[in-house]
Description:
Blueprint (H helix, E strand, L loop, with lengths): L2 H23 L18 E5 L2 E10 L2 H6 L11 E11 L12 E6 L5 E7 L13 E8 L2 H4 L7 E3 L1 H7 L5
Parallel strand pairs: 2-3
Antiparallel strand pairs: 1-2, 1-7, 3-6, 4-5, 4-6
Amino acid sequence: MSYRNWLTAGALCAAIVLAAYFGVLKSSSADGQAMMLPVDPTPLVAVTGSGEHSFSVEIADTSDEREAGLMFRKDMADDHGMLFVFEKSGEVNFWMKNTPMPLDLVFVGQDGKIKAIKRGEPESEAIISPGHPVRFVLELKAGTAAKDGLKDGDLLRHPVIARASGAGSN
């Protein structure tokens, strides 16, 4: 094999290895793998009648991230969640297809106030909707909202929510 052919074969092998490597890093719901987003450095704080409760959150703010959400996740820490951020307030519908763990879905208005809390059952295709326009949805491990005393009207604080409400950063 000539030197040129060796270079071509080497470049082709490198391209295949890189494609496989980056393909694994981007695994998501399309290939049956759980999507893992970076944890936001600022915790989300829920201000409730029983005090403040902090959560580490992944921010799902693109349509692909919102579509994948917590699908295929089997477990999550009690103080962890995913905050879904929509471009504007409106009616939203969720379902639990391909989501093996039960979840609390906390529907939040543009002002950061909780509008509704619903339970999501594993693998269900039933539509979960708050019945009100919302700008955010916080998904938590099932039972966390009740354990931490989250109720309709409570306030969630996070810089993403503050920017949406026009209040600047917290």
